[in-house]
Amino acid sequence: MTTYKPRPTGTDRPQDTLELSDDDGRPRIRDAVIDQDGTRWLRYGTADLFCWFSPSELVGDDKSVFARLTQAGTDLLTGKTKTAFLTAVEQHSGYRPALVAARPGWLEKAHYVYGNGDVECPAGDDREVIIAFEPNPKFASVGTLKAWQDSLGPVVANQPIPLFVEMYAFVGAILRYGPAHVQNPQVELVGEGESAKTTMLTGAASVWAGDPTSDVGGAETWDMTANVHDPLKRAHADNLIALDEVNLAGLDSKSQREVVQKVAFKGAANGGRKRLTDRAAAPNVRVATLSTSNVPQRDLLKAPAAIVDAVASRILTVAIPKEHKLGVFRTVPAGFVNARAAAEHLRTAVNENYGVAGRAFVRHLVAAVAQDEDALRVKIERLMGEFNTAAREEAVVKGKARGEKTVALTHAAGMLAREWGVIPESWGPLLPATLAVYHAHAAAGDAPYAPPAIERIRAFRARNRGKFGRARQGGWPYTEAELLKKPGVLRRKGKQLQLLIPAKRFRQEFPDHIDMLKQLRDEGRAQTEGGKQPKNTIKLPGRICQAAPRVYCITIVDDLDAQRASRKRTA
Question: How many other C-beta atoms can be found within 10 angstroms of the C-beta atom of residue 250?
């Protein structure tokens, strides 16, 4: 595949139409094309400074066209110059066919246009792509994928919320190929101040963009009006909008609270606002939104209950518990003295490497679409189904359907990024992170729900059925290498069935393992090791594994005979 950068198109060929000047370096019509949808476009300006516009846009919003021309170095301020300009446009002929990107995102079947005007296209397709929108330099690619992975890895590895947020950053690019019933997803990261919410937001934004001069990196802020959202959504089409601090919307006034309400509905819809003067429908835009707030958006609105519930149903709330002393982190990330040091490291990292992960992801995505678009769609639905199956196995109470789809889409995007080497294996297993966030999701009017620890252990067994080792009398012991390839070992002890899970695997699968062990101990299901320094793990007997590694020993069935008798009666 080849990456194209925006460049002047066409040649300064003689025109048989009225122009404002001869070819003496003064502004004039430089090129004219008709795009893949039948829309006409003109390139106007000098050889070095110009802008693209469509004649229909000139009729509907001439002020916008004249403003862009001024930014490109052409001032049309008097009636005389404007008339000459309009006459040149009216009399121009000879439009040639071309592929035109009026905004970033997907173009035709398998072209993807980045926000800075670079283009990703399938191998062998060297067609010219005209960039008709204003490129944004924040979407440039800086650094390398490996440097991005190495710098973010220590902070996000095996941390449910940070890992989920990074996975979610890739969702916008796959929305076009997801199920038709999925609307634009919205996630809000909610927690008290100093919980590293903004840091996680900039980490997600770094997948696609960055800006070392900004406090929020490649993200934006909520300091905007509702009408700004439509152009902002177009600028992030098939991508991620990261919005920091909803309180910047100015929620002390009714009008500003309405901004939050309108943006919630606008963000979920694919379409944009249609004005009286518009002659065509607003183009559909797919985008994923991530924002931060001190409290859920639904609690900020002073509106009828039906509206509050409608807003809440469109937003997945990822809540950071107030009692969580480490903010977004479950534990202090390895290699850092405290959570603050980890957050400060990430703030620096996103200014040094950004825009590289999204491009690596899109290159694989473009290749997959070009090879077999239907197969990609089936794969995305299958990955979403894997999450839904795991969620049902863990007996999670169903929340709002849109929230469930958002987490399932995040799982699908994350698994694709893992398969394509964008999210490395060293960051830890992805399914536990999505399940942990799903457990904590508070739907409108519902309390956050986490299934009992023993049910999560049983679901882990169900997901890995047939992969466990067996502890049998007289059997050959496993080597440590053989054991570590398995999710654990099943053994019968009296009437009990126990699951012995290697310590590292258990901590990866269950990031909240400390809370889980406390619950399992209180229920008498966790076998621990006593002594002067009690341990939550035990040494695996040498007859099972020669190296006797430490494992978590959980009783998953109390009475095997009673269970079997019950199954026979049911049958």
Answer: 13
The phi and psi torsions of 559 (rounded to 5 degrees) equal -140, 95
CA dist., res. 287 & res. 443, Å (int): 22
Task: Give the burial class of 166: count Cβ atoms within 10 A of its Cβ; 0-12 exposed, 13-18 middle, 19 or more buried.
Answer: buried
Q: Which helix (H) or strand (E) holds 258?
A: helix 254-268
Give the residue from 462, 342, 444 showing the smallest Cα distance to 392: 462
- Give the number of other CB atoms < 10 A from CB of residue 375: 11
Token pair, residue 459, equals 């679901």
Query: Residue 138 has which token pair?
Result: 């924040």
For residue 520 the two structure tokens come to 């399992």
The model's pTM: 0.75
User: Which of 469, 381, 175 has the alpha carbon at shortest distance from 389?
Assistant: 381
Query: What is the DSSP-derived secondary structure letter of residue 163?
Result: H
User: String of b and e for 257-294 (b: at least 16 CB within 10 Å)?
Assistant: bebbbbbbebbbeeebeeeeeeeeeeeebbbbbbbbbe
Residues 245-280 have pLDDT tens digits of: 776 554 445 555 566 666 655 555 555 454 444 444
Question: Which uninterrupted H or E stretch holds 272?
Answer: none
What pLDDT score was predicted for residue 166? 97
Residue 419, pLDDT > 90, answer yes
**Higher pLDDT among residues 447 and 306, named by residue:** 306
Residue recorded with tokens 């690619």: 141
Half-sphere exposure of 157 (CA within 13 A, CB side): 16
Alpha helices in 136-219 (DSSP H): 145-156, 160-168, 171-174, 197-205
What sections of 330-464 are H helices per DSSP?
339-352, 356-393, 401-419, 431-440, 453-463
Q: How far apart are CA 442 and CA 187, in angstroms?
A: 12
